[in-house]
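Quick one - inputs below.
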Amino acid sequence: MGQIVVARFPDGWLSELYSRNDIVDVVSAHTSLTERSGRFWGLCPFHKEKTPSFSVSRDKQVYYCFGCKQGGNVVNFVMKAENVSFGEAIEILSRRAGMELPDKIDDKEYMLLKRKKQQIKDLNKLAARYYHETLFSPQGRKAFEYLKNRGIDEPVMKRFGLGYAPDGWDSVLELARSKGVPDETIRESGLVLVKNNNMYDAFRGRVMFPIFSPLGEVVAFGGRVLGDGTPKYLNTKETLVFNKRRNLYGIDLIRRMAKVKSAVLVEGYMDVVSLCAHGVKAAVASLGTALTKEQAALLKRYTSEVFVAYDGDEAGEIATMKAIETLSAAGFRVRVIRFGDGLDPDEFVKTRGLKGFAQLVKNAPDSISYKLEVKKKEFDVSTADGKERYAIAAAKIIEGIESPIIKERYIKKLAEETGFSPGSISGEAQKKGAQKNSNANNRYNRIEKTDDGTESLLLAFLLGSPAYAQSVSGMVSEEDFSFGPHKNIFSALLGSVKKGIQPTYAELISELGAEEDVNEAARLSGLQVVAEDPGAFLKDCAAKLKKERLMRRRLELAKLLQTASGAERSKLLAEISELDKEFIKLRV
Ligand SMILES: [Zn+2]
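Output:
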């Protein structure tokens, strides 16, 4: 989630946005929720789990996961679930609620950034159109032939908006300038490089693959060189609108298909285009880097099963192992497609077609079987010793499986394969499993078992009933809290109240800047504090906080006293005696 930029919207606009986007409805689109003891519970969309520890409060419009210890309001949720910035989350929610975004948001920095991003996207669109037209012009003949030869016909070129960047130094630069795009924007778009203060086209003599955001905006380009130049593939560098860790090539097409049953994950954009040309429509590529957590989270929005189809060479095998880990952690069912003979998906479909590919999909091993196969290659299983060592290593892989039924299936398979008894393999594979299970107790009741102190209870009460905050302001100050996030939450609450606003729980969270403050406020939403006599409760809390603060200071002083001497020592002793007097007063 990172730091949150709190933009200043017109009075009441954000409140309206919150009230029109019920967090239970918004979250329900990502995970199914069941109501239980006043809260809604479901499997966390952000970490892998078997029993629900993710909870949503409809009263407070707040979510909190007891597993990953993160939470927030509906905007925080959308930021995380959709992998977007604060501003984008606001846009998504305003669209969802059918609300117009205010034209003028009273935050210069935010508006400036927003405008800059839009300018870069507009320029990218202009460039994409230019590259695309050039591909179909005499200038793009060679690139057009190249694509044709790879089995990519015109409809597919159009579907992906493919293009050609001519082999000049200033084609796009001049185009942008002729349209009045400021040099600063051109520079920040990544379409040009700068040397000795001179700008020149970054992409020259390349087949161009526009990279789209899920919403279909051109955020960057990938270019493949025609012929033998280097680098073979070139991507737009990081810009205000492009972070390659957070984008997947082809994700916009998957989004347009709505929910797809499964997607194919490949290494490069040529693989995505080529698969599509041969009838495999749902494919994405992870832009040159190993698949990231963010990319997995992005893909999770549209599908829950992935076929990893990386190249059949050694590097591809290593990347596959990593992708399996990342995808499994994100909660995907993972299967692996192997092309063999060092082929890549593009080469494979060109020679074997959709039929051949469908056969591979049908026979694709799941992630465990794949890991076992790869592991097996490390040993010479024709010898007794090799077989034994393979069985032990394989049992370690099986140990990680959570479901006992699935585990049993692999134990049987491994027993058949190695000749060891299922009993001894199961013994190897249970070692760690047993420990794991004892920790995985049902977390439904976590909410009642809490050892939260006065600070938490007081804040939880005030966040739920901000009307009392005013009366507390005379009794309690920020310094009375010992925990950083508590200080910040309290001061944000007081800040609002002093301005005459009684924020809802969700609104108060939007006032907090740091992620740990947001998480703590969300966690506090799980504490049910019912005070029959609020006045007495608050007075009691205030006294306890004062006392705790004095005690903290007293301990500090005692520690300092151990090394102090002379005037310093007398000063400390004087303060201690003052403190002791205050203690006595508090007891009365
Ligand atoms: Zn979680």
